[in-house]
Amino acid sequence: GQGDLPPEVWEKVKNHPCYSEQAHHHFARMHVAVAPACNIQCNYCNRKYDCANESRPGVVSEKLTPEQAAKKVLAVASSVPQMTVLGVAGPGDPLANPQKTFKTFELVSATAPDIKLCLSTNGLSLPDHVDRIQAMNVDHVTITINMIDPEIGAKIYPWIFYNHRRYEGVEASRILSERQLLGLEMLTARGILVKVNSVMIPGVNDKHLVEVNKAVKSRGAFLHNIMPLISEPEHGTVYGLSGLRGPSAQELKALQDACEGEMNMMRHCRQCRADAVGLLGEDRSDEFSNEKVAAME
Ligand code: CLF
Ligand code: SF4
Fold first, then answer.
1. Ligand 1 pocket: which of 19, 140, 272 to mutate (most atoms <8 Å of CB)?
2. What is the DSSP string of 179-238?
3. Is 180 inside any structural domain?
4. Global pTM value
5. In this protein, which residues make up the domain named Radical SAM core (predicted)?
6. pLDDT in tens, 203-228
């Protein structure tokens, strides 16, 4: 049901599988991998997964041009009737590839205006694009926020690329955090629903995420999705974060419970691939490879 949500918010979430727990049983999302570049480095990144932006073994997603992506969206929409949402979430950062991301949205909204547009970003360049996001009727934006304390950030982010130069260490994370929170405030002021994704990294930001939760809640975030860091089983390490492990299911749940309050916690995230297609937890990306979509014409 609608719960306590105001009607205009309910309208936006009722058929979005990530923003509504109930909706994910009935509605599907697809991602198109149009955004290869990134403007920051996360220690846990491997560019195979996005929105969740996680490190785990998998198949590399196919990169698409905006034109190919728009064609794929139409092909999927005609064979997957539950498909309500198009997400651009990687494999790099969508807003580090603004031409490709917005061109894709433009093409899709011209040919399939009923499909909701969704965006996931690390937030570094978000404040520069808020007007365009609003103009394109993007109602759902996810920002991955792993810290509000730059000292902790320095352990997660070795560098960012901002204003034509590279920043490192605490300075990099200070800038990143300011930009993320500013972007969040600008979006919520415009009535755009913001979900915050946080990767729980035991020993690095696990205790700190309660503070992150308060900070994003007070700035109007709609939903908080705390996801487990997944370490590569073969190596027991996560790229730049050697020696670290992902949290246990109990540790994750305890943190989610500690944050549960006026703001909802998302607990049904399936840590999607950059070219995911289908209901959450269902992977139909192979049915819609470039080759197969081309053959559908
Ligand atoms: Fe995609 Fe992300 Fe939009 Fe959903 S995924 S861009 S908000 S349409 Fe969803 Fe996947 Fe979890 Fe992301 S289950 S990884 S939260
Ligand atoms: Fe990787 Fe995403 Fe981090 Fe960029 S923002 S380095 S794509 S996890």
1. 272
2. HHHHHHHHHHHTT-EEEEEEEE-TTTTTTTHHHHHHHHHHTT-SEEEEEE----TTTSSB
3. yes
4. 0.93
5. 24-273
6. 999 999 999 999 999 999 999 999 99
